[in-house]
Amino acid sequence: MIYLDHDNADIVVAIRGLNVAKESDYKVLLDNKLGQTKFNGGYVHNGLLKAAQWVLDAECEVFREVIERYPSYTLTFAGHSLGAGVVTLLTILVIQNREKFGNIERKRIRCFAIAPARCISLNLALRYADVINSVVLQDDFLPRTTMALEVVYKSFFCLPCILCLMCVKDTCTLEDKMLKDPRRLYAPGRLYHIIVRKPFRIGKAPPIVRTAVPVDGRFEHIVLSCNLISDHSIIWIERESQNALDGWRLPDMMFATKCSLSDACNTIAKQLENVYSSIAASFSSYFFYYICLIFMLFVLILVHRIVM
């Protein structure tokens, strides 16, 4: 889909995610083996590259016409899941062939890959980090899936077993060995990791967004949680992304509204008080667990002495 956002002077190219009812989508996603396809000095996902080339060939004239009609607009590519991998490689293809699109400047091209598959090698991920941005919601399994996706989807009836084996394999693989393999694929570009849950906390926390690079350790291992599938959902990603954006806005600050300095200070004080209360509650829970552990150890020692 091509959408003209005149309010923000932007040309948006959006590609949908995986359609479970279409066999062709599975063929695209599963068409890949380690080191199968070399591209632009690195390695890429074979099926996603073919899909990106097909889109470029089919829509090249439309892209050129729209870009020439609106020469001051930015060009934004966006996609989710399967579409995220396609727009990633489509963005690289457009940058490589900018002369076909009116020599559009690189800084006017952007890509937002939502919950992407690992589709490009490390050197390409770093080379295009200024253009490509990936958004990952907490425990999403797909950006962390390092083995052939064909194995995962063909074994969907026992997906937890496969993910557990992958987790053990990645944990036992030395980091130096992983980084030295030029064929290894990574999530593309600069990563924005949305954190909405914290350990030992009931319910969700206010979303926190952390930036990362593709080799960040948190994306090198599968997280075995009850949310690793639901965190891949575009609905939850959109909702938590909006919550994170709302959290960045400071409507109570004097710089954003007509509030006075004292009102702004009071607001900040209340926010800090909430943070301190949360920390105190967490500390209290940890202290309770610590006391219970000591008591259990004491009981065990006492029973051992009685038996002896």
Automatic annotation (TrEMBL):
Domain Fungal lipase-type: 12-147
Pfam families reported in the protein's UniProt record: DUF1664 (PF07889), Lipase_3 (PF01764)
GO terms of biological process kind: lipid metabolic process
Molecular-function GO terms, alphabetical: hydrolase activity
Keyword flag Coiled coil: no
Domain DUF1664 residues, every copy: 247-281
SUPFAM superfamilies, sorted: alpha/beta-Hydrolases
Listed InterPro entries: AB_hydrolase_fold, DUF1664, Fungal_lipase-type
CDD domains given in the database record: Lipase_3 (cd00519)
Ranges annotated as spanning the membrane: 77-97, 287-307
Gene3D superfamilies (UniProt xref): alpha/beta hydrolase (3.40.50.1820)
Key words, A-Z: Hydrolase, Membrane, Transmembrane, Transmembrane helix
Protein name: Fungal lipase-like domain-containing protein
